[in-house]
Amino acid sequence: MEQKKFTPSICRKVLRLIQGETLPSSLFPRWFADELKEEGLLSVITHGSRNSYRLLDVEASIRYVKNKYTGGAELSRWIELTDGHNPDLDRSALVNETGDSKLVRVRTFRGFLVNCCEPLEVTMGEKSFTLSPLEGMAFFVQEPEKFRIPSDVLVVGVVQGPESTLCVTLSSVG
User: Fold this and answer.
1) How confident is the model at residue 1 (pLDDT cuts 50, 70, 90)?
2) Cβ distance 51 to 88 under 8 Å?
């Protein structure tokens, strides 16, 4: 069974058609080309045994793709949001621009959990504080680039949890 998923790759090809290009039929998934043909938006140009596609109504095609696949977002912006190269993307941006907070996988919590076996002096940015062990509790470090431990502290274990969260256990040496 053919998977019917609108991808950034397909969207880039639609943008090329919008710009007036004709594209070989081999570049489009058949299900998508059939859908556009059924809507009267895509024309098939035959070259012997080969076919290519051209849009019949550019404005209607843009509206159709925006309404059905991008949640109203501009096609170029939708590609930026979904291509996976935006580390600062958050769910609120997805909701605001596409209406779908789960359009792409976004880590909502960046960082890791820290436990310690005994009280340790650690630094977060410019502030130092004592990390004290409490049974059944862990400290969540949301900005790992600012978290510092003394050089004489031993990392006892690192365990990867759900959602790629790390849990680090610290102990002082000696």
Assistant:
1) very low
2) no
Structure token pair of residue 131:
């990390």
Q: Which residues of 32-44 are buried (b: 16+ CB within 10 A; e: fewer)?
A: bbebbeeeebbee
**What is the Cα–Cα distance from 164 to 170, expressed in whole angstroms?**
19
Structure tokens belonging to residue 127: 């502030």
- DSSP for 112-170 reads EEEEESS-EEEEETTEEEEE---TT--EEES-GGGEE--TTEEEEEEEE-GGG-EEEEE
Q: Give DSSP secondary structure letters for 9-51.
A: HHHHHHHHHHTT--EEGGGS-HHHHHHHHHTT-EEEEEETTEE
Residues 6+ apart with CB under 8 A from 149: 120, 122, 123, 155, 170
Tokens of 24: 């070989």
What's the token pair of residue 97?
A: 């621009």
Per-residue pLDDT of 117-149, as tens digits, reads 788 888 988 999 888 877 778 888 888 888 888
What size, in residues, is the chain?
Answer: 174
What is the rounded CA–CA span in Å between residue 114 and residue 169?
Answer: 6
Distance CA 92, CA 85 (A): 17
